[in-house]
Amino acid sequence: MDESHLAECIKDLEQGRFDLATISEWQAKRLDEEYNWDNVAEKYSSLFKDLLNKK
């Protein structure tokens, strides 16, 4: 991302070209799904199983 692209993104935000409420809801849902403890534990379990199988 260069300076002009960043400036364009900031301008778009300032002019309301994005629905920030919808983006915020989407991000909160994505974070909740991706980083809940069950998912984190499953990823670690899978990683350890993969590491053990490589020996």
Can you put this structure into words, describing what you see?
By secondary structure, the protein is an all-alpha fold. The protein has a domain at 19-55. The chain is 80% helix and 0% strand. The protein contains 3 helices and no strands. The longest helix has 17 residues, at 37-53. It is elongated. The termini are far apart.
Sheet of most strands: none
- Derived structural class: mainly alpha
**Mean pLDDT over the full residue set:** 90
Number of strands: 0
Number of helices: 3
SSE layout:
Elements: H1 3-14, H2 20-34, H3 37-53
Name a few traits of the molecule.
mainly alpha, 80% helix, 55 residues
Short overview:
The chain has 55 residues and is mostly helical.
